[in-house]
């Protein structure tokens, strides 16, 4: 009887040793985790701006123009609104398959108080009849083809701005991007929240406005930006324009209503967010706070706003899917041999991330950029 007991103890220790050796999600030093996260952020920002190194700073005393500050503040507000509205839907919508539809646009040249621009109009009722419910809309992307303009100096750069129409013939800024003047390309803007508003209020017509950012008083500047689908004398091409494959269009991705009618409320949220992790002192997977100061942590002076941001990171234990008393140790050992870089146990990874808006200078020109997936909002075991 004693020999059998010793045999079971040795067998249990054997299983324990093999199981522990197969997990690659090992405990790491907290300071090393933070250092690696900081270096990853350095590379992310430069990569997203297509920079090989941090730009040189001509002067730290340059005053940021008011229009740039206004764009930056609007971008911050929009990101905050989007984050609050989408947070509770993130995990549910990622589970279900989605359909994609293309909505072609009716286009007209717009002249608003003497300032030129392209007004893009679409049938909003077609969208809400298709989607049926605003939360089911996963993404809406506005796309248009910009033609090459050989009459512009090579290397010249523009900032293209997108607005949405509001009541009383006013327009609200949505987004902007820099484009090379002589390049022929598709322009794309994320307009998900705007289209959700149209679906929620069952609007009949939705309107966007595209314009060039220009400090001059010359209203003809927009003529230099040539968008496919606009004629030289009139913007509405009627039936002919609708057959043009380069006409601007809205690409909507949504979850069909019949896929969300059963079991939606019973599905539990898989990710853990900042609010939960602030009150949870356990060792399981959670969002950990990490504030990045651009000057102190990265040694950068070229980003004017913000001075830093809450990047955060994911850390913590995840349940091991095979317990010690299972009989699959040999199978797991073979898996570990064939996949030495893979983790058998789940790891704590980011689940939802928010963008980061910044103001920075290239030479003496101030820019506003929105860097995607920079702020960790929730984590999950995967």
From TrEMBL:
Q: Which Pfam families match?
A: TGF_beta, TGFb_propeptide
Stored PROSITE patterns:
TGF_BETA_1, TGF_BETA_2
Chief localisation class: secreted
- UniProt keyword Protein transport, yes or no: no
Report the record's Gene Ontology biological process terms. positive regulation of cell division; regulation of cell population proliferation; transforming growth factor beta receptor signaling pathway
Q: What does this protein do?
A: Transforming growth factor beta-1 proprotein: Precursor of the Latency-associated peptide (LAP) and Transforming growth factor beta-1 (TGF-beta-1) chains, which constitute the regulatory and active subunit of TGF-beta-1, respectively.
Indicate the quaternary assembly.
Homodimer; disulfide-linked.
Put simply, this protein is called Transforming growth factor beta
């Amino acid at each position: 009887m004693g020999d059998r007991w010793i045999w079971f103890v040795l067998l249990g220790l054997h299983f324990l040793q093999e199981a522990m050796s197969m997990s690659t999600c090992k405990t790491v030093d907290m300071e090393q985790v933070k250092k690696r996260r900081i270096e990853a952020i350095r590379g992310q920002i430069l990569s997203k701006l297509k920079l090989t190194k941090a730009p040189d700073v001509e002067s730290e005393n340059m005053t940021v123009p008011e229009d740039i500050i206004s764009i930056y503040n609007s971008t911050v507000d929009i990101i905050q609104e989007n984050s609050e509205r989408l947070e509770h839907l993130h995990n549910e919508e990622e589970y279900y398959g989605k359909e994609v539809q293309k909505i072609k646009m009716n286009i007209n040249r717009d002249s608003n108080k003497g300032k030129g621009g392209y007004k893009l109009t679409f049938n909003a009722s077609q969208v809400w009849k298709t989607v049926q419910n605003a939360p089911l809309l996963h993404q809406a992307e506005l796309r248009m083809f910009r033609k090459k303009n050989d009459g512009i100096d090579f290397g010249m750069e523009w900032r293209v701005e997108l607005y949405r129409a509001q009541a009383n013939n006013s327009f609200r800024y949505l987004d902007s991007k820099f484009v090379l003047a002589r390049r022929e390309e598709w322009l794309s803007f994320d307009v998900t929240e705007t289209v959700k508003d149209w679906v929620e209020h069952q609007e009949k017509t939705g309107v966007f406005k595209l314009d060039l950012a220009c400090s001059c008083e010359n209203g003809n500047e927009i003529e230099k930006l040539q968008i496919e689908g606009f004629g030289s004398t009139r913007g509405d091409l009627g039936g002919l324009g609708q057959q043009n494959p380069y006409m601007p269009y809205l690409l909507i991705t949504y979850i069909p209503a019949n896929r969300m009618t059963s079991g939606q409320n019973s599905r539990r949220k898989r990710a853990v967010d900042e609010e939960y992790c602030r009150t949870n002192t356990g060792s399981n997977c959670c969002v950990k706070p990490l504030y990045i100061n651009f000057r102190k942590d990265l040694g950068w002076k070229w980003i004017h706003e913000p001075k830093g941001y809450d990047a955060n990171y994911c850390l913590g234990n995840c349940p091991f899917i095979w317990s010690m008393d299972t009989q699959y140790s040999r199978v797991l050992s073979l898996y570990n041999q064939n996949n030495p870089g893979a983790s058998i146990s789940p790891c704590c990874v980011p689940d939802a991330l928010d963008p980061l808006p910044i103001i920075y200078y290239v030479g003496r020109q101030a820019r506003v950029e929105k860097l995607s997936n920079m702020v960790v909002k929730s984590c999950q075991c995967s």
